[in-house]
Amino acid sequence: MSKRAPSSLHWHALASHHPSAFLLAAQLLSMALYALLDESVNGLALLSAFGLLVLVLAVWVVSHSPAIRWIAWALAIPALVLTLLSPLFASSALLAWSSLLKAALYLYAAGSLIAYMMEDYRVTTDELFAAGATFTLLAWGFAHAYLVCQEWVPVSFVSVTQTELQMTFIEALSLSFTNLSATGLGDILAITSPARVLVMLEQFTGVGYVAVVVSRLIGMTIVRHRRKTTT
Hints:
With 231 residues, the chain is an all-alpha fold. The protein contains 8 helices and 2 strands, in the order ααααααβαβα.
C-alpha cells in the first residue's frame, strides 16, 4: 500500500501540471494505431473508442486553461452522442454533424491552449507540451471540417487515383497536416470553393501559429537561457 501511494501521487501531479502532455500522447498514439489497424473491423472499433478518449482529453485540457469549461462540454456531449448513434443508424448526416461539433471543440481547445501559452512571459514544460498539442488539435479540427465539407458539398476533393474521392478520417487528417504545415506534399486536392476556402484558412492558421505562438516561445526560451548564463 505504501509503495503504490507515491506512484499514484506522482501520476496525479503529472496529470495536474502537464495535462497537455496526455492529450498530445493520445493523439500521437492514435496516429500510430491508424497505421496498424486501419484496415480491420476490430481496429476501426478500437480507433473509434480512442477517438472518444481524445475528445474527452480535449475537454480536460480546456478545463486547465483560461477558457470557459461549459462551452467545451456543450460541444463534446452532443458530439459523443452523435458519434455513438451514427453507426447504429448508418447515417452519414449524423456523422457529419458529429464531425462539425468535434471540429468546433478541437479548434476551441486549440484557442484555449494558445491563450494559456500567451498569458505570461515564462516558458514552462507544460507550455512546450501545449505547443505540440495545439498543433495536433488544429490538425484534428480541420480534418473534421473537411469531412463535413465533403458530406455537405459532394465531390469537394479528388486524389491522383480517384476523381470522386470520399475521404476517410485518416485521409482527411493527412490532408490537414499537409496544409497546416504548409509542406504541399499531398495527393489530395480541394476542387470546390468551400473546400478551397477551408484549405486556405488552415494554411493561414498554420503559418500564423508558427509566426506568433511558436516564435514567441522560442524567443522567451532564449531570453531565459541568456539570463541564466549572465547571472
